[in-house]
Amino acid sequence: MSAAPQVALAVALRVLVHATDPARREALRKLVIDAGHLPVDSPLTADVVLSDQVHAGFAAMPEHGGQGLFTPRELEVLGAIGDGLTNKMIARRLDISPHTVKFHVESLLRKLGARTRAEAVAKAREHRLSNTVEL
Amino acid sequence: MTELIEQFSSELAARTAALQGAAAAIRLPHGRRVSAILWRPDVVVASEQSLPQREEFDLVLPGGAQATARLAGRDAGTNIAVLRLSQPVSPPVLVPGEAQAGALALALGADGSGGVSARLGLVNLAGPQWHSLAGGLIDRRIALDLRLGRAEEGGPVFSAAGSFLGMSTLGARARVLVIPAATLERIVPALLKDGRVARGWLGVALHPVAVPDALRETAGQPSGLMVMSLAEGGPAAKAGVVPGDIVLSVNGAQAVGFRRIAAQLAPDSIGRTAALRIVRGGSVLSLDAVVGARPAA
C-alpha cells in the first residue's frame, strides 16, 4: 500500500477509500491519485475498495498449553531474521557464537513448522499478532 | 411425513414473523448496514465491532420506518454497543432462554428496508464462560452452526421455542457466536448508566514465552508472559516494569496463560495493588502495581 506500483496498469482503477479517520482517508485518497487511479465515493462504481479496517472478528483470549513456546532469546533471533540479518550478523548483534545462532534458527523453524527463513518470519508475525494481549 | 415437514416449515415462518419486530437495521457509510436488537422501547443493542466511531446513527425499523439513535455506550470487551432511540417504539418482549447444544437456533437480521432475514442452524456449542481478547467476560460460549452475512450481525438469536438466546456476533474466521442474553442483561444497564464498562488495566502487552532452562528452577514454572511493550505512564510502567521482563504471576495467580491474569483485573480490582512476580536478568523480583482503569479503545 505504501510503495508505488512496480507495474504500470493500462487502465486507471476506480478506488473506494474507506477509513474511519478523516486524515487517514485523505492520505489514502492522495496515494490513490498519485498512483494514477481515480477515487470514487460509491461501492457501486468502484473496482476495488481500499480499507484500513481489518475485520478479524470477535476473538477469544488465546490460551496455550506451554508447549512449543519460544524462549526470549529465540524471540530476539526471530526479530533479527525479520530485519533481514544473516546468521553471522545476528551473532554479532546478540554477541553469541554463529554456532549458537544456527542452533536457535533450527529450533525456531521446527517450532514454527517453517522450511525457510522467510516463511518463519511470516508465520512468526501472525503468531505474535494473535498471541500478544494487552492487559 | 410431508405434513410434518410442512408443519415445521410453517411454524418457523410464523416464529420469524412474530419475532421480526425485534430486529432493526443500522445504516453505515457506503451503502452498508448491520443488524441490531430492539432491546427496550427506546434502547437498541448492536455488535460493537460492526459500528464505526460516531455518535449519531440512522436506523430502519421493522416495517420500514426511519429513526435516529444516539450512541449511549460501547464496550469492545463484550462486543456490545447501546444506542438510545430519539422516539420510543414498541418491540416484542424478549424472554431470555438458555442455549442448549444440538437444539435449533433462529438468527434474525434486518434487510434494511423494514423486512427480516432469517437463518436456521444448530447450537453448535454451549460451553462455559470465556474471556474475549479485549478482556471482557462473556457468560457462556455459544457458537452456531450457520452462516451469517455481515449485514446480519448484531441481530437477535432465538431458540425453537422463541426464547431469546442473545445477539449474533461474527467471531474469528467468520464463525457465528452469540453474546448471551445474560451478558447483555449485565452490560447494557452499565453502558446506559456510564457509557462504558470499567475494567482493570496494567498497561502492558504480554506474549507467552518459555522460561529459559537456566532460570526454570528459580522461577518454579516452565512459562510466563513476556512484556513486549508498555503504555507510557501506565500502572506497570509506574511500578518499574520494563520491556523484556517475564511476568511469572499476578497476585499469586500463575501467568501460564492470559485468562488467570485477566481474572485478576475485574472491575473491582481498580485502585488495588497487584503484586507482580517477575524474572529480570537472571533473578526473580517482586513489584507492586496499582491497577488502573482500562482506557477506552
Helices and strands in order, then pairings?
The complex is a heterodimer of chains A (135) and B (297).
Chain A lengths: L13 E5 L3 H13 L3 E3 L7 E4 L20 H11 L4 H8 L3 H15 L4 H15 L1 E2 L1
Chain B lengths: L1 H18 L3 E5 L5 E8 L2 E5 L8 E5 L5 E10 L4 E6 L18 E7 L5 E12 L2 E2 L5 E2 L2 E5 L10 E4 L4 E7 L5 E5 H14 L5 E2 L2 E7 L2 H7 L3 E8 L4 H4 L7 E5 L2 E2 L3 H5 L10 E8 L2 E8 L1 E2 L4
Antiparallel strand pairs in B: 1-2, 1-4, 2-3, 3-6, 4-5, 5-6, 7-8, 7-12, 8-11, 9-10, 11-14, 12-13, 13-14, 15-22, 16-17, 17-18, 18-19, 18-20, 20-21
TL;DR?
The complex is a heterodimer of chains A (135) and B (297). With 135 residues, chain A is mainly alpha-helical.
Describe the model.
The complex is a heterodimer of chains A (135) and B (297). Chain A is mainly α and 135 residues long. Chain A has five helices and four strands, in the order βαββααααβ. Chain A has helices spanning 22-34, 72-82, 87-94, 98-112, 117-131; strands spanning 14-18, 38-40, 48-51, 133-134. Chain A is elongated and about 55 Å long. The two termini of chain A are 31 Å apart. Residues 1-5 of chain A have low confidence and may be disordered. Chain B is 16% helix and 42% strand. In chain B, the strands form five sheets. In chain B, strands 1-2-3-6-5-4 form a six-stranded antiparallel β-barrel. Chain B has a six-stranded antiparallel beta barrel with strand order 7-8-11-14-13-12. With 297 residues, chain B is an alpha+beta fold. In chain B, a hairpin with a 2-residue loop joins strand 18 and strand 19. Classes of the chains: A mainly alpha (135), B alpha+beta (297). At the A-B interface, helix 2 and strand 4 of A face strand 9, strand 16, strand 17 and helix 5 of B.
